[in-house]
C-alpha cells in the first residue's frame, strides 16, 4: 500500500513540477521591456488620453455660445396690417381697405443687456469649475485603480510563500507517513492544502493581471507594465497640505452666478419702450399717410417681484451651502487622517508582534516535523500556517484601505490639481 501511495505521490509531484516549470517558462518568455509604473506616470497617461476632456471642452463651448447669445438685443420687427378689406355695405371687398407697413424697435433699459452678458459669463465660470471637479474625480479613480493593482500584486508573494511552506511540509509529512509516524490521511490532507494553495497562486496572478488591465484601460493601453511594490508598503501619515478645494470653488462660482442672476432679475423692474413707424395706404382714393406709435409696459416692477425674490433666495441658499460644505470637508479630512493613523498603527503592530511570532511558530513546528518527532502533527502546522497567512492577508487589506483613504484625502486636498492644466490644454 505504501509503495502504491508513494507512486501516486511521485506522479503528483512530477505533475506539479511540470506545472511550475511551465510557469517559469512563461515568466521568462514575457517581454523584458515592461517598466515600473508609478502613480505620476499613471496619472500622466490618463491625463493625455482622457476622452472626458473633449466633453468638458464641449460644455465650455456651449457656455461661451450663451455669452454670444446674451449680447443679442431685441430684434426689430417688420409687419403689414390690412384693415377694412372685407365687410358689409360700403366696406365691400377692397372698397375701403387700408394697408399699413410698419417697422418697430424696442429699446432695452436698466442694463438688461449687460446683466445678461454678466450672468452668461458667470455660468461659464461655473462650467469651468465643474469641469475641474469632473477631471479630479477621474484622476482619483485612476489613483484608486493604481492602488487596487498594487494590492493585487502584493497578494502574489503571500500566496507563493504559503504554497512554498505547504510544499516543504508535504514532503516531511509523506516521510512521516512512510515511516509510520502519521496516518496516511495526513499526507492526503497536506496534498489537498498544496492543491488549494496552487489554485490561490494562480488566482492571485490572474487578479493582478486583471487589475493592471483595468488600470491601463484609463488610457487605452495594455497591462504590460510592472508596479513598484515599495509604494504600497509606505504608510506615511503626514497630512497633505490643503489647497483650494475644487468643490468649494464650484460653490463660489455658483454664488457669483446667483449674484449675477439677481442683477439680471432686478433689471426687469425697468420697462422697455417700443416705437413704431409705418406707411398707410387708403384704398379709397389711393392716398398715403405716415403713422407713428409707441408703447411701454405698465406695472413691471410688481410683475417682476417674484423673479427678484427667487434669485435672492437662491443666492442665500448657496452662501449657506458653502459654509456647510466647508465644515463637512474639514470634518471628512480629519476623519480620514485619523483612520489612516489607526491603520498605520495596526500594520506596524502586525509587523512587530503578530507576524514574527506566527512565523516563528511555523518554523518550530516545521522543524519538529522534519526531525521525525511526535510532538507535532500536521494539524498543528496547518493551524499555525493559517495564522501566518491570515496575518499577511490582513496586512495587505489594511494597506489597501490605507491607500484608498489616501485617494479620497488627495481628492479633498487637491493634490492632483497641477495635472488639470495639462488636461485642459490637450485640445
TrEMBL record:
<keyword id="KW-0732">Signal</keyword>
<feature type="coiled-coil region">
    <location>
        <begin position="187"/>
        <end position="214"/>
    </location>
</feature>
<protein>
    <submittedName>
        <fullName>Metal transporter</fullName>
    </submittedName>
</protein>
<keyword id="KW-0175">Coiled coil</keyword>
<feature type="coiled-coil region">
    <location>
        <begin position="301"/>
        <end position="328"/>
    </location>
</feature>
<dbReference type="InterPro" id="IPR010131">
    <property type="entry name" value="MdtP/NodT-like"/>
</dbReference>
<feature type="signal peptide">
    <location>
        <begin position="1"/>
        <end position="34"/>
    </location>
</feature>
<dbReference type="GO" id="GO:0015562">
    <property type="term" value="F:efflux transmembrane transporter activity"/>
</dbReference>
Amino acid at each position: 500500500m505504501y509503495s502504491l501511495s508513494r507512486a501516486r505521490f511521485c506522479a503528483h509531484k512530477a505533475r506539479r513540477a511540470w506545472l511550475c516549470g511551465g510557469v517559469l517558462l512563461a515568466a521568462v518568455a514575457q517581454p523584458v521591456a515592461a517598466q515600473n509604473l508609478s502613480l505620476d506616470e499613471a496619472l500622466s497617461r490618463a491625463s493625455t488620453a482622457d476622452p472626458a476632456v473633449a466633453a468638458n471642452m464641449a460644455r465650455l463651448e456651449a457656455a461661451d455660445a450663451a455669452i454670444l447669445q446674451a449680447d443679442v438685443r431685441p430684434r426689430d420687427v417688420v409687419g403689414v396690417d390690412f384693415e377694412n378689406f372685407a365687410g358689409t355695405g360700403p366696406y365691400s371687398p377692397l372698397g375701403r381697405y387700408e394697408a399699413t407697413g410698419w417697422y418697430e424697435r424696442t429699446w432695452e433699459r436698466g442694463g438688461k443687456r449687460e446683466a445678461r452678458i454678466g450672468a452668461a459669463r458667470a455660468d461659464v465660470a461655473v462650467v469651468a469649475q465643474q469641469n475641474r471637479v469632473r477631471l479630479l474625480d477621474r484622476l482619483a479613480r485612476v489613483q484608486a485603480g493604481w492602488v487596487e493593482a498594487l494590492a493585487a500584486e502584493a497578494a502574489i508573494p503571500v500566496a507563493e510563500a504559503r504554497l512554498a511552506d505547504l510544499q516543504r511540509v508535504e514532503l516531511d509529512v509523506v516521510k512521516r507517513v512512510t515511516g509510520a509516524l502519521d496516518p496516511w490521511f495526513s499526507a492526503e490532507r497536506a496534498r489537498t492544502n498544496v492543491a488549494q494553495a496552487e489554485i490561490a497562486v494562480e488566482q492571485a496572478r490572474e487578479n493582478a493581471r486583471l487589475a493592471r488591465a483595468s488600470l491601463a484601460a484609463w488610457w487605452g493601453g495594455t497591462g504590460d507594465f510592472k508596479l513598484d511594490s515599495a509604494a504600497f508598503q509606505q504608510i506615511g501619515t503626514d497630512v497633505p497640505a490643503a489647497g483650494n478645494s475644487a468643490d468649494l470653488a464650484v460653490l463660489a462660482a455658483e454664488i457669483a452666478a446667483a449674484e449675477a442672476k439677481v442683477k439680471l432679475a432686478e433689471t426687469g423692474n425697468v420697462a422697455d419702450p417700443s416705437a413704431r413707424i409705418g406707411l398707410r395706404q387708403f384704398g379709397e382714393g389711393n392716398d398715403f399717410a405716415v403713422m407713428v406709435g409707441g408703447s411701454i409696459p405698465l406695472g413691471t416692477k410688481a410683475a417682476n417681484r417674484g423673479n427678484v425674490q427667487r434669485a435672492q433666495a437662491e443666492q442665500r441658499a448657496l452662501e449657506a451651502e458653502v459654509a456647510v460644505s466647508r465644515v463637512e470637508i474639514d470634518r471628512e479630512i480629519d476623519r480620514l487622517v485619523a483612520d489612516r493613523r489607526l491603520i498605520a498603527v495596526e500594520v506596524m503592530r502586525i509587523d512587530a508582534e503578530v507576524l514574527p511570532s506566527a512565523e516563528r511558530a511555523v518554523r518550530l513546528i516545521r522543524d519538529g516535523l522534519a526531525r521525525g518527532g511526535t510532538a507535532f502533527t500536521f494539524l498543528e502546522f496547518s493551524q499555525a500556517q493559517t495564522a501566518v497567512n491570515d496575518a499577511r492577508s490582513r496586512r495587505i487589506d489594511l494597506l489597501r484601505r490605507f491607500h484608498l483613504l489616501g485617494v479620497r484625502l488627495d481628492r479633498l486636498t487637491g493634490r492632483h490639481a497641477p495635472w488639470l492644466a495639462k488636461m485642459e490644454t490637450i485640445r
